[in-house]
């Protein structure tokens, strides 16, 4: 997109640079005067020789206005011809490289300080060897100037408004061989880079841009010359009241825009050589309503799980996300463009379906370091001021395939409603998260967390949660494929927990109340039980308590989990909570450091009765 805009802006700059070639017009005009000076001199000489003053006056009255009129028309014609030739010269290049620009009609309206061109085609020079190029057709380009004549005379032409109507672009780029690729290769995107474009537009002082009904398609040219369709988008862009502040000493002041209207139709993008592709039905931004929206967004892998994990070569989360809608209210475009501040009253995501899949048959990547949320907020280039974030009516499905398992285990969390208030990266205040969802139950699970962004806080995350009753049968979809464990009987009565987590260790307490527990150990990939598995199952049922109910003899499990730096914060939270499950079911304290384990074992009421 930037490559295409570069060519269009080059054409615009040609119009604007006309004032640099005023000498050309004046030279042609002087030639015109010389040609007709002889005629005037002859007529005047004849009049003076005949001493006919009336004839002299009549000749002057008739000839001078005619000469001025034709001189003016001649100058206009020469200017228009020069403008056309200059555009072609810039587009094609002095050595015949670049692009050929043709149009059916080209007009300059001096009285209206406007020019337009219609029926435009832009074609690359076939002899020019480039890695990327554009084919384009444009119905109409209209450029309105502020006082074109005076701008030419003073050498300071200002563009009032630039309009491009129905551009249709096909962008092609060649696939590079692996040995030719490097980390600095640019990534193509159908979204224009307004900062780069703004620096170019600032040179011509443009105050309004309208790009109407643009259709944009991108194609990757394979080594066998086949074209792979990489992206498609339809867009409309309207910017008015543009003021530039591009002083390098004031990097935060980029651009002021009085009015923004930006909408995008059906769009898809397949990033070649990458893992994911995305598509959406529509995107709309308007500062008139101070809002934006996106509908029917889908992010998904570009390949099957087998190909995906082979390409990565390490354990990772393969994700797919579908979203019914995202709506932002109270959006301040100038805060974003001028001060790099994302300012929103409310951001609402509705109907999200999230799938996370991890294959543990691959080695863990221990070289990465996953930043925790409070650290991650400190590294964002933009300041965020969001009063309210809401995720409504959503579903999360987690799949995990353990080593040597044929099928992944699955856990689904439904009807997720997440509310986060007061996300402000400039203020070191707690960010409160309130989550309600359904986990194997008709009643809501409720989790409340506080994220502390202050560096002085002893814990970056604190919180508590409550999970209502459900049957342990629901766990079999995850435990059978991954662990070879089947719950034959068991009812969860209630689960309560509280946690406190710093950068290294998660602690807390778990009350896991259940009854009628009976386990069966079988193979991961079948439903049959051999003798060894039967014996192991018997031992497991003998060691495990078949119940843990509230009351005097209830087992309260301490939580303790040391963070794994190359794992995500979700992994950290979940494993901190699960660290107490062993104590609740078996009565041991293996999760605790040795000294703390002894102290808990000495508390007799925690032992089997």
SSE topology sketch:
Elements: H1 2-16, H2 22-49, H3 53-92, E1 99-102, E2 105-109, E3 114-124, E4 132-146, H4 148-154, E5 158-174, H5 194-202, E6 208-221, E7 227-244, E8 255-264, E9 267-270, E10 276-280, E11 282-286, E12 291-301, H6 305-312, E13 317-329, H7 333-339, E14 341-350, E15 353-359, H8 373-379, E16 383-401, E17 409-424, E18 431-438, E19 445-451, E20 461-467, E21 470-471, H9 476-483, E22 485-501, E23 505-521, H10 531-543, E24 557-562, H11 569-578, H12 581-585, H13 594-601
Parallel strand pairs: 5-6, 14-16, 15-16
Antiparallel strand pairs: 1-3, 2-3, 3-4, 4-5, 6-7, 7-8, 7-9, 8-11, 9-10, 10-12, 11-12, 12-13, 13-14, 13-15, 16-17, 17-18, 18-19, 19-20, 20-22, 21-22, 22-23, 23-24
Helix pairs in contact: 1-3, 1-5, 2-3
The helix content, as a percent range, equals: 25-40%
Secondary structure category:
alpha+beta
Distance from first to last alpha carbon: 73 Å
- What is the β-strand count? 24
Largest sheet: 24 strands, mixed
Spatial extent as radius of gyration: 36 Å
Uncertain ranges: 1-26, 89-96, 183-194, 604-609
Organism: Flammeovirga pacifica
Transmembrane segments: 55-72
Keywords: Membrane, Transmembrane, Transmembrane helix
Protein name: DUF748 domain-containing protein
